[in-house]
Structure formats: structure tokens, C-alpha cells
């Protein structure tokens, strides 16, 4: 899995883990939040996914941000329900991969948060309980719209 940074350099997930670890080592006694969110958008017959990894030093408010972007052909119509479940699943997978790395020495699982692009209004209400259940079942904290800013604002910017 590959990610880009703010300079548009492409890095493997292992490399971003190294960068995040070095960042956290600059202030090892600080409290950090690891926030992960995914958004997708359909353009004609192509689905674009963007997953964002955001490590936030809560004391200094400094952060590191990486994003992964991929595209695939849409097999059926505008399956919003399937896309939202895929978004939640991708965020969980990325969180698990990062959590199983050396970052676990610094950031506890209780400081991981998955931002879901679902809420109590609109079409996403149909899949809200499913997505929340997936995240809770994986042991992570979650936010939904309007509080899920990483998925609904930041990742959304990368899919456009």
C-alpha cells in the first residue's frame, strides 16, 4: 500500500510508519491521536478512493498527514451502501496495519480513531449501524458526520 505526503512524494506504508515514528519520538511523552478516514466518489464508471492517515500531537498541535488514492471500475450503478462499507473497511485495515507496527510503543489503541463518512442524515443512514459496528468490533473509537472531519472534508478533497 502506497501513500503520498504533502510534497506528493510516494511512500510505502512501512516508510510512513517510520516517518510517523520519528515524528512521535521528537516528543515521546506527548499524547497523540491517530486518525484515519476514507472517502470515495464516483466519476462516470470510475470510483476514486482516498484514505488519509493523520497523526496529531495534542500538546503542540503539530501533525503529519499522508494519503493513499486509488481508482477502480464501477461494476454496478451508484452503490453508495457498498462504497461506504468499503470505506469503513479500508480505514480499519490501515489502522490495524499501523497499530501492529512499532508505533504501538508510543500510541495506544485507545488513541486510534476512525472517521466514517456516514451520519444521521441522507443515504448513509442506511449503513450507519453497520459501519459503526465494524469499527467498534475492531476495537477502535469512531466519529461520524458532522464530527468525522478527516473523512468528510480532508479525504473528500483528495477524491476530487
Itemize the secondary structure elements and their pairings.
Blueprint: E1 2-4, E2 10-12, H1 13-25, E3 32-43, E4 46-57, E5 63-73, H2 80-99, E6 112-115, H3 128-137, E7 141-143, H4 149-159
Parallel strand pairs: 3-6, 6-7
Antiparallel strand pairs: 1-2, 3-4, 4-5
Characterization of the model:
The chain is an alpha/beta fold. It has a single domain, classed as 2-Layer Sandwich (Nucleotidyltransferase, domain 5). It has helices at residues 13-25, 80-99, 128-137, 149-159, and strands at 2-4, 10-12, 32-43, 46-57, 63-73, 112-115, 141-143. The strands form 2 sheets. The chain has a 5-stranded mixed sheet with strand order 5-4-3-6-7. Strand 6 (112-115), helix 3 (128-137) and strand 7 (141-143) form a beta-alpha-beta unit. 33% of the residues are buried.
Short description:
The protein is α/β, with parallel strands linked by helices. The protein contains 4 helices and 7 strands; from the N terminus they run ββαβββαβαβα.
How would you write the strand order of the largest sheet?
Answer: 5-4-3-6-7
* Percentage of β-strand residues: 25-35%
Cα radius of gyration in angstroms? 15 Å
Q: What is the CATH level 1 assignment?
A: Alpha Beta
Query: From N to C, what is the helix and strand string?
Result: EEHEEEHEHEH
Going by CATH, the architecture would be: 2-Layer Sandwich
Number of helices: 4
Number of domains: 1
**Helicity range:** 25-40%
Distance between the termini: 20 Å
Largest sheet data: 5 strands, mixed
- Poorly predicted residue ranges: none
Total count of strands:
7
Output mean pLDDT: 95
